[in-house]
Design brief:
The chain is 27% helix and 16% strand. The protein contains 17 helices and 20 strands. Helix 12 runs parallel beside helix 16 and helix 13 runs antiparallel to helix 14.
């Protein structure tokens, strides 16, 4: 095993200068699935308000709500038809104001999910735009006139034909939609569009919201000449046309006109962004955004062969690749601050993807993954339900799915005579609805989520995996999560310390040192269902174990540490580490 350490990245700011969001955990709520207060089978704002005490008791202080604005729900709120109204399914503006008041009263903050790259096709701007080329709203969107022939190929994420252009007869032109047809892309080169969007941001900030998660933000600027793309050279063409020519100029303008005037957090969604590009969004001196939610973990593929350590390693993905990816993002953040996540509403459940959700390992691997997210350097984005160890539901039929992505891709494969069975098998592992099933509150009907049949089926494992049961069990995933969150608060140095990857090529163990001014912490995590051993490269004499996920901690008195399947341990090391192999000394 090689022990080539990655260079550490030292936070530049002192504790006093640190913005609050560097120390927080962003807890993501999919409102449709969190808690239904009015018995229509759909989660709502009052449902969230009713559970604020539960979240506060877990130690959660920052909530990110997936879109709550008026929407016809082609893509569950990511198609907004009125940015200043609350989606009827979720309640009223009064409900939202009450939720915000009650959150603030508990010292909690709320981030809204703003979709600024596109609107719904039912937004009044688009309803106007599509009527004629002379309409003043026509230039709010991106068009290709029919007299110029077929538009150059652009791929759409959710379109049934994967085509991002849709013909609109009244204007004799095609409109661009990188997502579904119901989600036309806005023309950010039009200054009126930008001002409208900044006004929307001010509207919500005036109400007191604490910031935004900015959806699909790398896509906002386009090269409007739409050059032909060599698809041989760019088989995955999204990276080619995200990060458009004026992206950073527009983000700086947004910062100048809106963000710099308020105390708010902005977290951009950074799909298709490399660590080096990512740095540009978050470098404090560039005055753009605060955080970028990168897709490193989502982009790691499951493999069947050629894995480091072979099948013996007991992991179906390339762990060293994940380690390098996180180390790269950590280094690239520079004076900015990284984020870390393993699951969200667009990804499978973290325990199913990176752990093992069989009854034997679910609890242990969910705890080990929690230990990872809560001990890395960066703001963790935690997806609601992962603290219970909620797992993929693995639907077997297409009609069980709600997600436009799954349904449209299925239709395309079916139309083209492809292998729909294989697609359904893949979706069982990666489909987005796996993460969107209702939150499992208790063992009663519908998992206590609603009194009515929920909009998406509840995972049948709810009788075992639910908040009521786990709250009463000191060994549950939930109790472990609560302890780990509390530990972060007791050890601010753990949150702030630099990160140094150890044993980057170890095929089973993710090991790292967090090195602060007054303390250092060693984290050893076995990501596999097989035992593993490591020589951690740090002196363990006098190490104080702070957190472990088996009933007993692994012995730390030798030069090597043996970890059981999915075992994780966090310890505080009092004495300085030996200098051998280190790239920097901070003491
Ligand atoms: C990213 C969001 O996370 C996803 O759920 C949505 O479908 C697309 N952006 C389009 O807005």
């Amino acid at each position: 095993m090689k022990n080539a350490p990655h260079a550490a990245n030292s936070p530049a700011t002192t504790a006093e200068e640190r913005p609050w969001w560097r120390d927080t955990i962003v807890y993501q709520i999919y409102p449709r699935s969190f808690r239904d207060s009015d018995g229509d089978g759909i989660g709502d704002l009052n449902g969230i308000a009713d559970r604020l005490d539960y979240l506060h008791d877990l130690g959660i202080e920052t909530l990110w709500l997936n879109p709550i604005f008026a929407s016809p729900n082609a893509d569950n709120g990511y198609d907004i038809s009125d940015y200043r109204r609350i989606m009827e399914d979720f309640g009223t503006m009064e409900d939202f104001e009450r939720l915000l008041r009650e959150a603030h009263a508990r010292g909690m903050r709320i981030l809204l999910d703003l979709v600024l790259n596109h609107t719904s096709d039912e937004h009044p701007w688009f309803a106007e735009a599509r009527t004629s080329r002379e309409n003043p709203y026509y230039d709010y969107y991106l068009w290709w006139p029919e007299e110029q022939g077929r538009p150059p190929y652009r791929k759409s994420h959710f379109d049934e034909e994967a085509d991002a252009w849709c013909y609109n007869p009244p204007t004799r032109s095609y409109y661009l939609h990188y997502f579904a047809r119901q989600q036309p892309d806005l023309n950010w080169d039009n200054p009126r569009v930008r001002q409208e969007l900044y006004d929307i941001m001010r509207f919500w900030l005036d109400k007191g919201v604490d910031g935004f998660r900015l959806d699909s933000i790398p896509y906002i600027s386009k090269d409007r000449t739409f050059p032909e793309i060599d698809t041989e050279k760019f088989p995955d063409i999204f990276p080619y046309y995200s990060l458009g020519p004026h992206l950073h100029e527009y983000l700086r303008e947004m910062n100048r006109e809106v963000l710099s005037r308020r105390d708010c957090l902005t977290m951009g969604e950074g799909s298709k962004v490399s660590p080096e590009e990512g740095r540009k969004f978050i470098a404090p001196e560039r005055h753009e955004l605060d955080l970028l939610y990168h897709f490193g973990a989502a982009d790691i593929r499951n493999e069947t062969d050629g894995l480091p350590g072979g099948t013996e390693a007991g992991i179906l993905y390339d762990l060293p690749q994940i380690k390098r990816m996180y180390a790269d993002w950590d280094r690239a953040a520079g004076s900015g601050w990284p984020t870390v996540y393993l699951g969200n509403h667009d990804q499978p459940r973290m325990v199913s993807r990176f752990g093992d959700d069989s009854s034997r390992w679910r609890g242990l691997s969910a705890k080990m993954l929690a230990m990872f997210l809560l001990t890395m350097r960066g703001t963790p984005c935690w997806f609601a339900g992962d603290e219970l160890g909620m797992a993929n539901i693995r639907f077997t039929r297409i009609d069980e799915y709600d997600d436009i992505d799954t349904r449209n891709r299925y239709r395309k494969i079916e139309r083209e005579g492809g292998d729909t069975e294989r697609f359904l098998r893949e979706q069982q592992e990666i489909g987005r609805d796996n993460a969107r099933t209702p939150y499992q509150w208790d063992g009663s009907a519908h998992a206590g989520f609603s009194t009515a049949r929920p909009w998406l089926r509840v995972n049948p494992d709810y009788t075992e995996v639910n908040a009521a049961r786990e709250s009463a069990d000191p060994d549950s995933v939930l109790s472990f999560f609560r302890r780990a969150v509390a530990l972060r608060k007791e050890h601010p140095e753990l949150v702030r310390a630099s990160f140094r990857l150890l044993a980057p090529d170890h095929p089973q163990i993710f090991a790292y040192l967090r090195e602060g001014e007054a303390a250092r912490y060693l984290v050893l995590l076995n990501f596999s269902c097989r035992p593993a051993r490591i020589a951690p490269e740090a002196a363990l004499d006098g190490a104080e174990t702070l957190l472990h996920n088996y009933p007993t901690a692994p012995p730390l008195d030798g030069s090597t540490v043996e970890l059981r399947p999915f075992e994780g341990v966090l310890c505080r090391i009092a004495a300085p580490a030996p200098s051998a192999g280190r790239t920097e000394a901070r003491e």
